[in-house]
Amino acid sequence: MSATMAGTGNLPRPLMRVRxxxxxxxxxxxxxxxxxxxxxxxxGISFDxxxxxxxxxxxxxxxxxxxxxxxxxxxxxxxxGEVVFDGRTVGDxxxxxxxxxxxxxxxxxxxxxxxxxxxxxxxxxxxGPIVHGTTPAKALDRSHALLARVGLAPARFxxxxxxELSGGQRQRVNIARALAVEPQLxxxxxxxxxLDKSVEAQVLNLLEDLKRELALTYLFISHDLNVVxxxxxxxxxxxxxxxVEIGPAAEVFDSPRHPYTKALLRSVPSGDPLRRLDAPPLxxxxxxxxxPPSGCRFHPRCVVAQPVCxxxxxxxxxxxxxxxxxxxxxxxxxxxxxxxDIGGLPPIRTVEVSHA
Amino acid sequence: xxxxxxxxxxxxxxxxxxxxxxxxxxxxxxxVNGVDLLLRQGEVVALIGESGSGKSVTxxxxxRLLDERGTCMSGTLSVNGKDVLGMSxxxxxxxxGKDVAMVFQEPLLALDPAYTIGNxxxxxxxxxxxITARDAxxxxxxxxxKVCIPSPQRRxxxxxxELSGGMRQRAMxxxxxxxxxxxxxxxxxxxxLDATVQIQILLLLRELQRDLGLSVIFVTHxxxxxxxxxxxxxxMYAGRIVEEGSTRALISAPRHPYTIALLNSRRHAAxxxxxxxxxxxxxxxxxxxxxxxxxxxxxxxxxxxxxxxAQPLAFDVEPDxxxxxxxxxxxxxxxRI
Lengths: 356, 337
Description:
The complex is a heterodimer. By secondary structure, chain A is α/β, with parallel strands linked by helices. In chain A, about 25% of the residues lie in helices and about 20% in strands. Chain A has 10 helices and 14 strands. In chain A, helix 3 (about 120-130) runs parallel beside helix 6 (about 165-180) and helix 4 packs across helix 6. Chain B is an alpha/beta fold. Chain B is built from 13 helices and 12 strands. The model of chain B is unreliable at about 330-335 (pLDDT under 50).
């Protein structure tokens, strides 16, 4: 039994269900003769966030991670699909936006831009609770308690402005502010990416502690695969607005199924001078989400692609152990011929380093 | 012929006791506080450290890119044997791009948005060499092929904003290599890129370095990226190099407590899910008010009064592995790598 459910004690139940989420951004200029084109940022995404888990989301820039986070928070409205929180559809009469945002909060990457420069940090943290009906005096008390909890002594820090803090301290303030309305779900969008490694480790430890104490659920979006592996119970791998693989972190990292996930994992430098990479696992930049490739969107960069991959669209297929992958190779009856498959990617080639 | 023993060519870059400070209203920021660094010909040295450690300032100092007003530089700084600190602005302009070139972190800011990339490369070549526009354009095309940009002819006519991030960084490397510099300075060239693109650029840099025999200083905060390309690594903290050695020695047997902590703090992947990460408590020191002793002492678990009293000297723990710590004997015994 892994540590997946540690802390909840109960059977896992979904806190948030995302169904067929779609968000296309129309482009103003359109080519003559063509229909109106759009950036297909989020293109049919479905998954569940279990209560008490940390769900990681990884993928290259432009794959729609941040757009998805913003749609989940309803900072932008989806074109279609629905988000169900704790059994109630977000935006419905049963769960209006204000009530939902008490339950779900977000921490952004840019710690400075996400704080009001003209408000002291104690006021920034107290702002949310006041909006939700707490008296200002109580909200300020809670603000001080939270500042202390995230490691910023209120006596020293409460009256400071954002520019008087370091990046790590500001991100602690943002975390405190997110927690001020006592949410169940916190969406962390590249929340530690701008921090130095030593500071990042401190903030990651803080996030782990808070999660345990307050029984929080995290949706952790990051491009840093090492951090995701350390922090997350389950992982979603996104490519061009779609989910290509989802499963327990240990499964996805140790036995990735999708060729994209494999290439992504191999692209991370090992940090070991004896295991340097010899050739990049993936060539080229991610393609344009305006006109994504036909069939499987990864096929132009895929080393095991077959002709069928440019025609058939793979669907997320269960491959056991709560692990699902959207690849024709893993989909029986898809027309992908495993006979010609030479067993996936070529082995990692490493080079010996010469020290003269 | 034992040419390895003949000191024929001067070192690509030599820094001796380099100090750089910035005068701000009411205070002085001591960004670089006595850096000694030797970059041999054909060698790749990675300068690693956290923000504010002085790594980028050191790099910019080599090309004298820091604003002369309010910047105070002292020490010795030479490139290919030529003293840079004493150069006239004319000599500097002749050196920049020709002898030394730099690759910046954010090509979108470093490239001129109003000119096509082909024009910018051709302009650089014609600034340094007597060559026709047509020949310069042909050189630009060859450079784009060298850095593996697909459909190079079309890309040369593109403006910087029309290219993807990885392509822009390749274009920037092509621009840096336009006049065949022997020394390449790379300031966080892959930090803004995705992992899949980062490894492509790292491998491209390594390949170009080997093919062209470049001497490279590679500044990064990402140790793993440094390991991928560097022959030697120098770790900076509060404007000083606290440890320097061959990549293998530094990774497998780090001696300075800061290096050890840095290596431990990035070891997420190996950690068991749920175990706490080792952190370095506290924050880097204020560069306007540096302590008299070791700058890391305030965050170091092994710090003693001796550490706080005086600046520890750098000494060789083994050939080509220097450390600035008076407790290295102890750290070697307890380092777990």
